[in-house]
Each structure stands twice: as C-alpha cells, then as structure tokens.
Automatic annotation (TrEMBL), chain A:
Residue span, MHD domain: 170-425
PANTHER family xref list: AP COMPLEX SUBUNIT MU
Family (UniProt): Belongs to the adaptor complexes medium subunit family.
Protein name: MHD domain-containing protein
Keywords: Cell membrane, Coated pit, Endocytosis, Membrane, Protein transport, Transport
UniProt xrefs under SUPFAM superfamilies: Second domain of Mu2 adaptin subunit (ap50) of ap2 adaptor, SNARE-like
UniProt membrane topology term: Peripheral membrane protein
Pfam families: Adap_comp_sub, Clat_adaptor_s
PROSITE patterns: CLAT_ADAPTOR_M_2 (PS00991), MHD (PS51072)
One GO cellular component term noted in the UniProt record for this chain: clathrin adaptor complex
InterPro entries hit by this protein: Adaptor_comp_med_subunit (IPR050431), AP2_Mu_C_sf (IPR036168), AP2_Mu_N (IPR043532), AP_mu_sigma_su (IPR022775), Clathrin_mu (IPR001392), Clathrin_mu_CS (IPR018240), Longin-like_dom_sf (IPR011012), MHD (IPR028565)
GO biological process: endocytosis; intracellular protein transport
Automatic annotation (TrEMBL), chain B:
Stated name of the protein: AP-2 complex subunit alpha
Annotated region described as Disordered, given as residue ranges: 662-694
Principal location class: membrane
Any single Pfam family the record assigns to this protein: Adaptin_N
Top-level division of the source organism's lineage: Eukaryota
Length: 426, 975
C-alpha cells in the first residue's frame, strides 16, 4: 500500500510529506527530484517511475506535484484515484486555484486531511461533504458543531454520503448530460470505430433526505411502458452508477432511484454504440506532388445538426509533414495557422452554425531532406463542443423528488456533446 | 562567434531555461520551422543549382547552421539544410568554412545518399595544397586540416573509398606542411580502423619509413599513432620499421635531441617515447633472433642501451608533472622488458625490479599503484625475477594496509603472484591476519586468493584445512561455496596420513561453540559424516557427541545446511547404534518440511532401513568415492570471471605448483594402479569385440579376385572416402577406380572413374550395382559399361578412363554401403572380378545443425534409451601422437567436415569432449508431404591417459545411430 504522500513544488522542494509506513525514507523525495523533475521527465514519460524498488506515482496540479510512494505492488488506478480525490478535496477547502502559498498557509489543515483520508496506507473516506463535518478550517465553515455520536453514526451508517438536517431555501436540481463521441474513420470514409461515452452530472440542493427517481429514454424502459405514441428509445450498452443508486431496484425494473448526496456528484455513466448522429462530416483531400517537395491539402467540414444549434470551440488539426518550410492557407471561415510544435495546421472556428459547410485549402512547400523518409500521414483530429445536442439521442424524461415535507423542486437540464477522439485518417 | 550571433545566444539560453522537456522540444520545433522557412524562402526563384538559398547573408547562414548544429547536439533529428552547409564548405572565407565543416561532420553520416556531392567539395579542399603554394598557404593548410578532420569524423565507406588516396597523398607529399601531415596521419588511422584492409602494409611501410625520418616531432607522434594502429592489425608487415623506431628513440633518450616546444618539463616529448615503446612491444622476439643481420644487431644493441638509460635515469622528482612524464616512460619501458620476457637481458630485468622496489615505497599513490601492477607482471616471468621480488615482500605487505583500496588490490595481486613454496606460509599467514582488518570490498577477493594459495603451496594439508577454517571464522560470509567444496574434495581425495582424522577432529572442535558460522557448520557436517568414525574413539568425540554438537546448530541454519545435516545424521545413525533414537525424531519432523529437498531426504533415510537389506544400506551410506580432479578448479574459474583470462594472477593460478604436482602424483600413483588394471581389462574386452567386427567387414570386402595384401589399403581407402569428397577407391596393376561424390540434403551425385593403368586394352569392362530399398539410384555410364551380359561391356583403351555417373537419393536410414561389382578381362584373357563397396554411407546425407549448449543437452537427454543410443570405445592408433588439444582439433574436424555434423560449442565440459549435431535428410515423404528427417547427435569423449575415445551417438532411428557410430569409429581410427 501507499507508504508516503509528498507534495512538491515545481523545483522539487518538499512542501508536505506524510509517512504512512516506515519502509521509505524522506530521502526518497530527493531521488524523485533528481530523476524526475530535474530530468524534465514530467509530461513526456509515464507518471509512474520506479527508482530503487520504490514506485513513484505522481500527478500535477498547477505547478505542484502530488507524489505517492510505495514499495508494494499496488493497484495504480487506486493510487491515482486517491491522488485525484485528494486534489478535489483540497480544491474544496482551499479554493479552485490553490497554489503553493495556500498550501504553505494551511499546513495544519492539510496534515489533518492527510490523516483523515488515509490510514496505514489505505485510503479512507474521501467525501468532502462528510469530511467537512469534522474538519472545518480553510474556506469551509461549519454553522453548527455536530454532536459526536451523530458524527459517528453518520460516518459508519448506511447513508454516509448525506447527512440529515440539510436545509436549502430553494430546492433545485441541475442535471448535465455530457456526451463525448469517439470516432475513427479510414481514409476511404469507412467507419472503423464509433461510440459515445457519457456521464450524467448532478448538482442537488435539496432539503432533508429526499428520495429521487430518474428516467432516461432507455429502450428497455420505453418498450416496457409500451405506449405507442412515443419515439423508440436509445439502446444503452452498459452503464455504471454512483453508489447512492439502489442497484437492486435497477436490476429488478430498471428504475434509477436514490437519495442524492448534497452538491455535485456524478450520477451515472453510460455507453452507446448504435444509431449515433455524427455532428460533423469531414472530407479531406491530400495530394503529395511528384517532386516530393509540395503537398496540397483541401478539406471540407459539414455540420449535420439542427440550424438552431451551433458548435463552439471547433478546432481541426490537420497534420503536415515534419519538414514543412512554408504554408499558404486559405479558409472560408475561422482562422488557421501552421504550428510547428504540433507539426500541424490548426484551424479554429469559434462558432460553427448548423447545416453549414466550411472549406480550407493549404499549399505546403517542403524542405528537401538529407535522408528520404516517407511521411507517415497521421490522422486529422477534430475537437468541438455542441451544446443542447446529444449524438446518442439520449434525453432525460423525468426526475421526481419525494420528500416528507413535499416541497416543490426546480429542475434544470443541460446537454453537451464533445469530441473525444474524433479522428479521420488521410 | 558569441558576439556575432545574438540570436543563437538567445536561442540557447531559451532552451537552457526551459522548465520541462515539452517546453524545450516545442521551442526547438518552432526554431526548426523558422529555419526551414528562411532556407526555403528563395527556393522557387533565386536558388543555386544545389538548392541553397542565395538571398541569405553570410551572417544569417552561419547563424542558422550553428543553430542546427546545436539542435543536433541536443539530440533532435536534423535532416535538412545540407545544401546550406555545402555552400559554407565551398566558401573561401575561413569563418564560413569552419562552420561548414563542423556542421558537415556532425550532421552527416557516412551512409547518407548525398555523400557524392560532399566528396567533391572535400576533395577540392584536400588537393588545393598541391596546386598552388603561394601567399595564402596558411589558408590552404587550414582548409586541408578542416577537410581531413571531417573525413575522419564522418568516415563512411563511400567517403573512404573516394578519398583515401588523397589523404595518403597528403600524408606522403613533400609539399604538405607538418600540420597537414599530422592531421592526415590521424585521419588515415581513423579510416584504417573502420576499413582495415584499405591498403597493403608491405607497400605502405616504406612511406611510413620516410615519414619516420621527418624532423618534426609532431609529425612523428602522429605517424607513430598511425603505425601503432596499423601494426596491431598486421605486425609482421611493419617489422622492417623497427630500426627507424629505435633510432628515433635513441635520438630522444640518449641525445635528447628535441625542439623546445616538445620538451615537457625537460623530458623530450614523452608522448612520442611512449608510442615508440608501445610499438616495440608488438615484437617480443626481436632480441631473441640469433640470425639477425648486422644492421638489426646494431639496432637491438642500441635498443637495450636506450632501455638501460631510461631505467637508470628516471628518478622521483619534485615537480609532479616532470615525474609523471618520466614515470610514464619508465613503466612503458618496463612493460617492454616484461614483453621480451626471458629472452631479454637479465641485467635489465634486475634493474627494473630494483627500480620498482624503490617505487612501491614512495608516497605518491599513483606511482605505487603502477609499480605494484608492473611488478606483478615482471614477477610473472619465470626466471629469477621472483627472487628479486621477494626482497620487497615486506614493503608490499605494508602496501596492503594502504589507504587507497585500488593500491591494496594491486598489492594483493602482487603478493599472490610472488607467493611460492618458500614464502607461502608466511604470506598466507600475513594475509589471514590482515583479513581481520580488511575492508569489506576487498575481503571476498582476499578470501578467494588465500584459499587458492593455501591449496597450491600447502606442504602439509593440515595447514591448509586450518587456514580455511580460520578464513571461515574471520570472514565466513565471504567464503563462497566453491572454497569449502574444495576443502571437502581435498580431504576426501587424500586418504594417506591422518589428514581425514585431523580434519574431522578440528572441525568438530570448530563446530563446538554455540555460535559459529554457517559455512563452518556445513563443512563440519559433511566431513564428520564422512570421516567422523575415524575419531569416534577419542574422548569427547563419540558418535553421540558428534551428533549433539552438530544438532545444536540445527535451529539456526538454513535449508541447504539442514539438507547436509540430514545426510550426516543418516550416516551417523548407520554407524552408531546409540544415535538412532536421537536421529529418528529429527527425520520424523522433517518429513513434513516445506522444503522439498529436506522432506525427500528425511523420508528416504527414514524408510531406508525397512526397505533394503542391511548390506544395501551399508553400501548406500558408505563414504563417498574420491572426486575427479578437474583441469580448472571452480576457484580458478571464479578468479577468471573476476579478473579476465590474461591477468597475471590468473596465469599464476592456472599453473600447478610443485606441491600440487607432488600431491597429485602421490594420490594418483596409488589410485592409478588399481584403475589402470581395471581399464586395461575393459579395453581388452572391448578391443576384442572390435577386432571381430572388423573381421566381419573384411570378409564383406575381400572376395576372390582381390589379392589379400591390398585389402588393408583398400579398407583404408574406403573409410577415407566416407569422409572425403574425392579419392581413389581401389588400385592395382590393372585398374584404378577413382571416385568423386557430393551431396545436397537427401540427394547425392557420385562419379566413378575406371582408369586403365596397363599399357594394353581392357575388355568387357562391366559394372553392376546392387539395388537396395533405402536408396533410389539412377545410373548412367560409358556405353556398355552397365551391361550385365557375359561378353558385353565396354573396352577401355590403355591410359584412358570409363566413367559412371550415379544419382542417388536416400529413402530411409541404413548402415551398410551399396555393393558394386567390377568385372573386366585383360588382353591375355584373364577374367577379373572385384566385389567392392561404394562409400555411400548415412553420414553423407547429414546436414550440420548448429545447436546452443542448452538445446544440445536437452535433446541429448530426450534421446536416452537402448534403441536410440549407440556407444563404442576405440583406441587411438599406435602411431598417433599423444592425445592433446591439437589432436582433439583434428577429431573435431572429422566430426564437422567428414561426418557433416555441426559442432556444438559450449556444451563440452572439458576440452576432451566434442559434441555435434546434424539432421539426416531423406527423400521419402510423410503423410503431410514433408520430407522425413532424422535428428542425430554425436559425442566423442577422449581419455588421454588410456589413449582411447568413446563414441556415443543418439538419434531417433536405431539404424542411424549405428551407422553414424561406425563411420565415426573408422574415421577416428584412421585419424
């Protein structure tokens, strides 16, 4: 298990170090500083490094390194999940953009959190909501000190993610359906891989211990209801839920019921592979001239979604050979530029309306090289965001909230489709 | 340059300040893109014919090329800009040329396709010197030097081919300045290293001789570097140059003729001197040659004089630089003396030894280190010098306590080398005493060396046992397994005297204390198990007592030790009735041990008494037979691992000492008589069988018509042909039958010639060959030759030949040779009929297989079994020389060339074993349509004492085994 957690600044100086087991020494920080930070290895190499039988697993927040050190054969996914959770907790306590100064100023708080979230190298309760019950320093202020016995039953009880007696003036629920679409298309236009992975994020501000029921246009549910006037549902391939969801009930009749934690959480994830609407069609034409010294690229991007919608932050990355000397680019829309760091032409369009067509043409002069090497032709990468559009066709049918007091709840639903790996081979 | 290019400086500092690798590489990518753009901006309109951009200013071009060089040096790939580099190279300005050549030698590799265009511009710079030697000669010199440097740096094959003539020309030419000559020599050295056979040494030697007469010491130094490089490859071709070298050496050492700029702290050009001495070390025999002509005699006389002078003149001086230079020369001279060995003059060796003796006591550790090392080499020479070394023994012992561990190591080496029968006891004692204080880093080495010395020079083996025991008690962790195994071997192998009893008693005492080292327990356990009975009568050493002493260590010992202990207990229990109740519970408990070895041993020992008769048990638990004495002991192998084969210490360790030889002789003499008797009987039996076999074969081959007296020759010819591609099969006064055969996998092509050696016609020559199942044959011959009718056949005129061609394919393994009948009639009407055999045997169809040792042993083991193995012992022929390495080499060539087996290197444990592997290819198909092949393995083991070989073959097919064995036997017999 984890033997030690370190927080280092960008120079590799130790800011926080907490030892959970005594099988590594503090000198380990030095070897990490010398072999990883000083070697400028971060960002290019794997975030796991083994030095003298010690594994260093690290991640970065701004310019700070969160390093977990272990001698055991741990599950790296667990260690990283812990490190990410740790950063989330610190964000909640110290503010989104906490830096080395705020770390330095809140030493005691951080050590307290270190003690609370891990014991003898094993991760413990990492829910901010619960932690703030008994650790209240930093940004988080507790109104009333809870009773000690209440605290114990809370932490050890059946619903440890929500405490009783929460009150909100206005009862509101925000639901975000975030879909990311992965696509790999061959140069002939055949689809090699296509899927949508999505997550449903919730932010609840509800009083008491409400029972919620949530419904999507899942094909199985719709067929069961068998009302003929409805559109056919979406076939969801697999899904996972937050631990507050009652799985027994879901298995029995595929209804999603839960008592939500207070604040933000991820309710579920799902994956869809059939009947996906691609938001963009990309048609590239790449020609390498006979004399090897010129390449011309023409590319057409067509948006397929409704005219009322528009995509934002569209970035199309068109790779060019490494020995590109000069580029001549013409675009009908947006801005395009050759960026040698990525060895690609980056075409940026801030707002891409629905059912529209955009063109880009580029003539590229190449530098003759000493050793002739064929261009490997990496794929074109596309990045975008389309709000209020789901490429899988999923939508939220209902969210019902039942509470003893029977208050009214405001519900807000938002959809976004993003590009995951949206690649077209050329 | 720094002031010239601000942009370059900024770029470098940007990269230095980059925080992460990504940042650095993105900065580099951006810069590369910018340079590409700059270089390309005139690509379409205003470019030269070679593609470089004319619109760039000289400053810009230089700046960008410097940046490219810097990026390349950082490890990024730069594969453009060569045309700009070429433009710079072609430029007349020095600053541009310099950048150009630096970039050229860094950015280009010898294998790049555009080398052609580079070659021309380099050549023009190279030959410029010859063309015009005017006012700008300095410039031309620098250009030439730059060109030479980059040739040396790139040194691609194509470049070498194209330019080595020019480089040589520059080197030899009278017009070249000394500077250019120096560079050319070094450049040529580099070229010769990459392609060693650039030119013939014999032709080039005179050029070098000419260069060696140059007065410029710099040229001489470079030339000597070149010469050393060349002469290492082909020493004989440069032997003629020795007088020149000696002459130069004489000039430097005796006359001290040396320019001021080459005086290094008053020493005339020490570098050159060292190179000269190094060259001379390549010829260790120059002093030994008696038949030398007067001129070379003069030079050898001068050489000894020079060396003498070096030895006498060098002294420890105050100036550290001066003394460094002088000592470097001195040590090189001593190396030369060592190199000459016993053939060199004795007084030189003595003088050197005296001098080194002085140096090993100086303060300067570097000198001490070198002195110790060189002294070890010198001491290694057989004659007399060892005596000289001994005088310094005390000094060396002091060095053993030096603060510097490398000096201590050398001192240890030297002590090891100078040890002999007289001082062994003292040195070993001294080393053992020192071991207590020694550093952990050197301990293991010390222990190993002490163990070897103690074994080598023990006049009394009891002393040896004591010494090793001391080693264990002082530094048990460093006593490796081979060391204590060796103790056991020696004790077991020397039943004479009371060594075994002594060892048992000493070890019992050593194991008595509650705490003692585990290794001690192991040795004690083993030796007591074997020889405990010798001391059981002594007070306090009864069997029960022995058990008690050993068993107290049971709980603190590990699995290996426990396994040994269990065996010992079994032996004790067997000997002493009273031990049995003590041992039984131990066995009972160990039957459930986690360790398989211990579990098995205890279970077997416990069950032994019930399962077997008392005699059998007695037999099983009797003491071990003496160990086989190996050529190299495990200890020496270990030393070899550590220090390499040619270190002085290893050479020393590998040579048996007088004591060892005596001991071996004693031990062997006793054992040999019994053994030899047994062996003789054994071989006689074997031999008898062998003779019978031959008789059998003889009858096959010797029919009516062939005179008895030529049968042995004929048999020999047949056997020879089994392993040779061509030869004479049969010969008498009438006919000579020659044969040529070659094979490809399962198929063979045999051509038989029937030559008429009489002066008359031979009539009715007819050949018939029996068909057999395992061979498919196609025959084609001179007309009539294959007729079978009486009176048919062809006629062969005097001194002519008839020819028969046979194509053969093997279908299955076989172990006999096809029969051939030759019939003819002389003019006198006498009919002759010779039944012969064609030398088509199974090994003809072998295809060699290269097997790694592991694979060989695996297959070897998998082919065990009655059917598949054939084994026979053959004695070496009476006339054959002693079985030595050379003889084994001959056997090896029989296996590989004659039998067509692949020699399996590495699986032979001793030089007396040869292993081979091959595949027997047949033309028949299995049900999948693949050809059927049979894997064959062969092993020849020699017994040099008995002058006999044991041939073992293992194949998948019994006939194959037999056939291979037969051919191998016969060939070895004929070898």
């Amino acid at each position: 298990m984890i033997s030690m957690i370190l927080v280092l600044n960008h120079k590799g100086d130790v800011m926080i170090s907490r030892q959970y087991r005594d099988d590594v020494s503090r000198a380990a920080a030095d070897s990490f500083r010398l072999q990883v930070i000083a070697a400028k290895e971060t960002g290019t190499q794997a975030p796991v490094k083994r030095i003298e039988n010690c594994s260093f697993l690290y991640t970065r927040h701004l310019n700070m390194y969160f390093v977990a050190i272990t001698r055991a054969n741990v599950n790296p996914a667990l260690v990283f999940e812990y490190l990410f959770q740790k950063i989330t907790i610190l964000k909640a306590y110290l503010g989104e953009e906490f830096d080395d100064n705020s770390i330095r100023n809140n030493m005691t708080l951080i050590y307290e959190l270190m003690d609370e979230t891990m014991d003898y190298g094993y991760p413990q309760n990492c829910a901010v909501d619960v932690l703030r019950l008994y650790i209240n320093l930093g940004n988080i202020r507790q109104q009333d000190e809870p009773d000690a016995s209440e605290l114990t039953s809370q932490i050890t009880g059946a619903i440890d993610w929500r405490r009783e007696g929460i009150r909100h003036k206005r009862n509101e629920v925000y639901i975000d359906v975030l879909e990311s679409i992965n696509l790999l298309m061959s140069s002939q236009g055949d689809i090699l891989r296509m899927e949508v992975t999505a997550q449903v994020q919730m932010n609840t501000k509800l009083t008491g211990m409400p029972e919620c029921k949530f419904g999507l246009n899942d094909k199985l549910v719709i067929e069961k209801e068998a009302s003929s006037n409805r559109k056919p549902g979406v076939e969801i391939d697999d899904c996972t839920f937050h631990r507050c969801v009652r799985l027994g009930k879901f298995d029995a009749d595929r209804t999603i019921t839960f008592i939500p934690p207070d604040g933000e959480f991820e309710l579920m994830r799902y994956r869809v592979t059939d009947n996906i609407n691609l938001p963009f069609k990309i048609i590239p034409a790449v020609r390498e001239m006979q004399d090897q010294n010129r390449v011309s690229i023409n590319l057409k991007a067509i948006s397929t979604y409704n005219t009322r919608l528009f995509a934002t932050h569209v970035v199309i990355k068109i790779p060019v050979p490494k020995n590109t000397a000069k580029t001549k680019i013409k675009t009908s829309f947006g801005r395009a530029k050759y960026e040698p760091e990525q060895s690609a032409i980056i075409w940026r369009i801030k707002k891409f309306p629905g059912k529209a067509e955009c063109m880009i043409g580029a003539d590229i002069d190449l530098m003759p090289t000493t050793r002739n090497k064929a261009w490997v032709r990496p794929p074109i990468n596309v990045d975008f965001q389309v709000p209020m559009f789901t490429s899988s066709g999923v939508n939220v049918r209902f969210l019902r909230v039942y509470d003893k007091s029977g208050y009214n709840t405001n519900r807000w639903v938002r959809y976004i489709t993003k590009a995951g790996g949206y690649q077209i081979r050329i | 340059m720094a002031s010239q290019a601000k942009g370059l400086q900024n770029f470098i500092s940007d990269l230095r300040n980059a925080k992460s690798k990504e940042e650095e590489s993105s900065r580099v990518e951006r810069e590369l893109a910018k340079i590409r753009r700059k270089f390309a901006s005139g690509l379409s309109s205003k470019s030269n014919e070679d593609g470089s951009n004319t619109s760039l200013s000289s400053y810009q071009r230089k700046k960008y090329v410097w940046k490219l060089v810097y990026i390349h040096v950082l490890g990024y790939e730069v594969d453009f800009g060569h045309s700009e580099v070429l433009t710079l190279v072609k430029s007349n300005k020095f600053s541009e040329k310099q950048v150009g050549y630096v970039a050229l030698s860094l950015l280009l590799r010898g294998s790049d396709p555009l080398m052609n265009s580079v070659v021309n511009s380099i050549r023009s710079d190279l030959v410029a010197g010859g063309a015009s030697k005017g006012s700008n000669s300095v410039q031309i010199d620098t250009a030439q030097s730059l060109a030479l440097c980059s040739i040396a740096n790139i040194s691609g094959l194509e470049l070498i081919q194209a330019l080595h003539v020019e480089v040589q020309h520059n080197l030899v030419s009278k017009t070249s300045s000394p500077n250019v000559k120096k560079k050319s020599a070094l450049c040529l050295l580099r070229l010769v290293r990459t392609s060693p056979n650039l030119f013939a040494g014999r032709e080039f030697a005179p050029h070098i001789a000419q260069l060696l007469q140059d007065r410029h010491l710099g040229v001489l130094t470079s030339t000597m570097s070149l010469l050393n490089g060349l002469a290492v490859q082909h020493p004989t071709e440069y032997e003629t140059l020795i007088p020149y070298v000696v002459h130069i050496l004489g000039m430097l050492v005796i006359k001290k003729a040396c320019g001021k700029e080459y005086l290094y702290y008053k020493t005339p050009s020490p570098w050159l001197q060292i190179k000269l001495l190094k060259f001379l070390q390549l010829y260790p025999n120059i002093l030994a040659e008696k038949d030398a002509n007067p001129s070379s005699k003069a030079s050898t006389a001068q050489l000894t004089q020079v060396v003498q002078k070096i030895l006498t003149e060098t002294d420890v001086s105050d100036s550290i630089n001066k003394s460094n230079a002088d000592h470097a020369i001195l040590f090189e001279a001593v190396n030369l003396i060592v190199c000459w060995g016993p053939s060199g003059p004795t007084q030189l060796r003595e003088a050197a030894m005296k001098l080194l003796g002085k140096f090993i006591s100086v303060r300067e550790p570097n000198i001490r280190y070198l002195a110790l090392m060189t002294m070890a080499k010198l001491a290694q020479l057989d004659t007399g010098s060892a005596e000289g070394v001994k005088k310094h023994q005390t000094t060396v012992l002091v060095s053993l306590k030096d603060a510097d561990i490398s000096v201590r190591r050398r001192a240890l080496d030297l002590l090891f080398v100078m040890c002999d029968s007289d001082n062994a006891e003292m040195i070993v004692d001294e080393l053992v005493n020192h071991l207590v204080l020694a550093d952990a880093a050197i301990r293991e080495e010390m222990v190993l060396k002490i163990a070897i010395l103690a074994e080598k020079y023990a006049t009394d083996l009891r002393w040896y046992v004591d010494t090793i025991l001391k080693l264990i008690s002082i530094s048990g962790d460093h006593v490796s397994d081979p060391i204590w195994h060796r103790v056991v071997q020696i004790v077991t192998n020397h039943p004479q005297g009371d060594l075994q009893a002594y060892a048992a008693a000493t070890l019992l005492v050593a194991a008595s204390p509650r705490r003692c080292h585990e290794t001690a327990v192991r040795v004690a356990a083993y030796v007591l198990g074997e020889f405990g009975f010798l001391i059981a009568e002594r007070p306090g050493m009864s069997g029960e007592e022995q058990f008690r002493i050993l068993h107290q260590h049971w709980h603190s010992s590990d699995e290996t030790t426990r396994a040994i202990l269990i065996s010992t207990y079994a032996k004790l229990a067997n000997l002493y009735e009273e031990c049995r109740p003590l041992v039984a519970p131990v066995f009972a408990r160990c039957k459930n041990s986690v360790d398989v070895e211990i579990q098995q041993r205890s279970a077997e020992y416990a069950a032994m008494r019930e399962a077997f008769s008392p005699e059998a048990v007695e037999d099983l638990l009797r003491e071990m037979p003496p160990f086989e004495d190996k050529e190299q002991t495990a200890l020496e192998l270990r030393l070899k691992d550590k220090e390499g084969e040619d270190s002085a210490t290893f050479v020393k360790a590998a040579r048996p000492s007088v004591e060892q030889r005596q001991r071996a002789a004693q031990a062997a003499a006793a054992a040999r008589e019994v053994e030899e008797e047994a062996q003789r009987q054994h071989y006689e039996e074997e031999g008898g069988e062998e003779d019978y076999d031959e008789e059998d074969r003889l009858q096959d081959l010797a029919p009516v018509g062939i005179p008895k007296e030529i049968i042995p020759a004929m048999r020999k010819a047949f056997s020879n042909l089994c392993t040779c591609p061509s030869g004479v099969l049969f010969e008498n006064n009438f006919i000579q039958i020659g044969l040529k055969h070659d094979y490809q996998a399962a198929q063979g092509r045999i051509t038989v010639f029937f030559g008429n050696v009489t002066s008359n016609l031979l009539k009715h020559v007819r050949i018939s060959i029996d068909d057999c199942d395992h061979l498919r044959m196609q025959k084609q011959g001179t007309e009539g030759l294959l007729d079978d009718e009486e009176g048919g056949g062809c006629s062969v005129a005097a001194r002519t030949q008839a020819k028969l061609l046979i194509l053969v394919e093997t279908l299955a393994p076989f172990d006999d040779a096809p029969a051939m009948r030759v019939k003819f009639e002389t003019t006198e009407g006498i009919k002759h009929e010779y039944p012969l055999r064609l030398p088509i045997v199974a090994t003809c169809f072998m295809e060699p297989v290269e097997l790694a040792s592991g694979a060989f042993m695996q297959r070897w083991k998998s082919l065990e079994g009655q059917e598949r193995e054939c084994q026979e012992i053959v004695k070496a022929p009476q006339s054959a020389p002693e079985i030595d390495e050379e003889y084994m080499e001959k056997i090896r060539s029989i296996i590989t060339d004659g039998l067509h087996f692949g020699h399996c290197q590495g699986c032979d444990p001793t030089p007396w074993t040869i292993s081979g592997a091959a595949t027997y290819r047949t033309g028949s198909k299995d049900k999948n349509g693949n050809n059927i092949n049979v894997g064959c393995l062969v092993r020849v083991e020699a017994n040099p004492q008995a002058r006999a070989f044991r041939v073992t073959t293992r194949t998948l097919h019994p006939l194959c085994s037999k056939a291979v064995k037969n051919v191998a036997l016969v060939s070895i017999k004929l070898a």
